[in-house]
Design brief:
With 205 residues, the chain is of the alpha+beta class. The chain contains seven helices and four strands. α1 runs parallel beside α3, α4 packs antiparallel against α5 and α5 packs across α7. The chain is globular and about 50 Å long. 34% of the residues are buried. The structure holds glutathione. Glutathione binds next to α1.
């Protein structure tokens, strides 16, 4: 089994953090997306969508999509439960993870892809107005998150979950996207410091 990734890219990083939380070791193969290594014929045969991460099982089965990969490992290694437990617990984490993915990470990614000079050759055409339009959406999501984190220790409630992983990666990605964190979001800052500390460089995440 191996995971094909670009180590520093946000979606592969979500998988890495997920695996570190569960204490699962998997071999990784690095492809540099910035050098267009996802656009080769060989990789396109593995994932015609030309995206990472990709999980390749020993029998050659290919699983793409970050959340599908995480769910696969959750099924095999249920503890700690990062997708929740019980009908309500799972629904709540699904809800928050989707909010963090579609509401936060997506908009940060749009700013990065459409504004950062390093993406000019990959994101064609780069539409600067679209990047700018996404900035206030990021700020709006963080406000909503702040309200939630006023009541809960973690994004989806009292337990750490995949929603925290998605949100943490999105927040870190803001730096690369050159989006300043809005001031005055004390609960977001408290949470960010809290979830940023469990990992050290030795975890490789
Ligand atoms: N929906 C996919 C998105 C994967 C994705 O966009 N991955 C980025 C890296 S974070 C990528 O492969 N980008 C390659 C490119 O833009 O050419 C998932 O959740 O895994």
């Amino acid at each position: 089994m191996k995971i094909i990734e670009t180590r520093l890219a946000p979606n592969p990083r979500r998988v890495r953090i997920f695996l570190a939380e569960k204490g699962i070791k998997v071999d990784f193969e690095e492809l540099d997306l910035m050098k267009k290594e996802l656009q080769t014929e060989a990789f396109s045969r593995i994932n015609p969508w030309q995206r990472v991460p990709v999980l390749v099982l020993d029998d050659g089965t290919v699983i793409t999509e970050t959340m599908a990969i995480c769910r696969y490992f959750e099924e095999l290694n249920p503890e700690p439960a990062l997708f929740g437990k019980g009908a309500l617990g799972r629904a709540r984490i699904e809800m928050w993870n989707r909010r963090m993915e579609l509401g936060l990470l997506f908009h940060v990614a749009q700013v990065f892809r459409h504004l950062h000079p390093a993406m000019a050759e990959l994101e064609v055409p780069q539409i600067k107005d679209w990047a700018e339009a996404n900035k206030p959406r990021v700020a709006q999501q963080l406000e909503l998150m702040n309200t939630q984190l006023q009541q809960c220790r973690y994004v989806a409630g009292d337990a750490y979950s995949v929603a925290d992983i998605t949100a943490l990666v999105a927040m870190d990605f803001m730096r690369l996207a050159r989006i300043k964190r809005p001031e005055g979001l004390a609960h977001v800052e408290r949470w960010y410091a809290d979830v940023s500390t469990p990992f050290t460089s030795s975890d490789g995440v």
